[in-house]
Amino acid sequence: MKDSKNKILVINPGATSTKIAVYQDMELLFKKTVEHSVQDLQEFSRVFDQYQYRLDLVLQSLKDENTNINTLQAIVGRGGLLKPLAGGTYQVNKKMIEDLEKAEQGEHASNLGAVMAWNLASQLDIPAFIVDPVSVDEMEPVARISGLADLKRISLSHALNMKAVARKVAKEMGKKYEEVNLVVVHLGTGVSVTPHKKGKMIDVNNAKAEGPFSPDRCGGLPADQLVKLCFSGKYTYEELKEKLGSKGGLYSYFGTMDVREVETMAKYGDKEADIVLDALAYQVGKEIGAMSTVLMGEVDRIILTGGIAYSKRIVEDIIERVKFIAPVEVVPGEEELESLALGALRIMQGQEKAAIYN
Ligand SMILES: Nc1ncnc2c1ncn2[C@@H]1O[C@H](COP(=O)(O)OP(=O)(O)OP(=O)(O)O)[C@@H](O)[C@H]1O
Ligand SMILES: CCCC(=O)O
């Protein structure tokens, strides 16, 4: 193991924020979250078009913190919608950038993580990495069957945060991640509900298309009504895709993705806000129940994490519904920046070899 200190820039582009941090080995030098309103992002038709806007914010943050970019030894970004991959740290390469540019698996803010890391790192002649990308796929064969021969279920999730939080909770239990069964729920702008069986995410609601609705996504919809809507002439393909993928969920009801705003509406008597928040907790609870059956009921812990896990109302409602299954741990926010830095550090210190994307 090398003993020299490694300065690592971490970039995590999310749907409603860009999170930036610099670590010296595992010591956090600074961390910053820049929130993006719907208005900030509405001028960009594709996620890729946000590249310069988000990069400028990263560079400005480094400047504000008096961090000379030339002192960095590596850059690590959140990995996006790549092809299905095993978990781990990947060195960013040209093929990965090309795939992200084509967005074949779909548009997502995290697609920009590798691209920003790669472009900056190339200028500095240092390596760029991603860790546990959105497309980590550890599903069992039975979970891939959709029920229609034309369609396969796929694994897209908040793998990075869920695996990091799962490891942390397992450690608190005095066990290894590979020794426990967990249902981990990421409650962010998107929602992932995942059964982790002895260190593997053996199923997941594809957080872009299935399961509970979320602040900006509709989750699973009544298929027959959706087909009718598709052919109604009311929306173009692009409009409907946007509606389902980034303007669904809470946004479709209230024009905001901010749970706090909807909670305030409910508090001041808005009945629709009240029932839609109830429905969010209801759907998440129902999905936890379903994923617990994937683990045959052998669930050591249920974990609630992500930004919405700060919401007392939603968390209490979910716990009330699922506490009969297993004890519930609440880990609000996310551990993504630290996990990204740690993933890069493991490679830089020679503890692991970076996986190759091809
Ligand atoms: N204190 C709070 N109470 C209630 N909701 C909150 C609180 N803080 C954040 N949220 C909600 O959390 C959601 C965002 O979560 P998070 O920051 O984990 O998502 P993201 O990083 O934008 O996207 P994702 O996690 O899906 O990649 C928003 O709907 C926000 O309103
Ligand atoms: C597709 C799941 C990842 C996210 O929404 O951030």
TrEMBL record:
Principal cellular location given in the protein's record: cytoplasm
Keywords assigned by UniProt, alphabetized: ATP-binding, Cytoplasm, Kinase, Nucleotide-binding, Transferase
Broadest EC class assigned to this enzyme: transferase
Family matches, as Gene3D superfamilies: 3.30.420.40
Reaction(s) the record says it catalyses: butanoate + ATP = butanoyl phosphate + ADP
Pfam family, any one: Acetate_kinase
One BP term from GO: acetate metabolic process
Compartments, record wording: Cytoplasm
GO cellular component: cytoplasm
Protein family: Belongs to the acetokinase family.
HAMAP family cross-referenced by the UniProt entry: Butyrate_kinase
Protein name: Probable butyrate kinase
Organism phylogeny: Bacteria, Bacillati, Bacillota, Clostridia, Peptostreptococcales
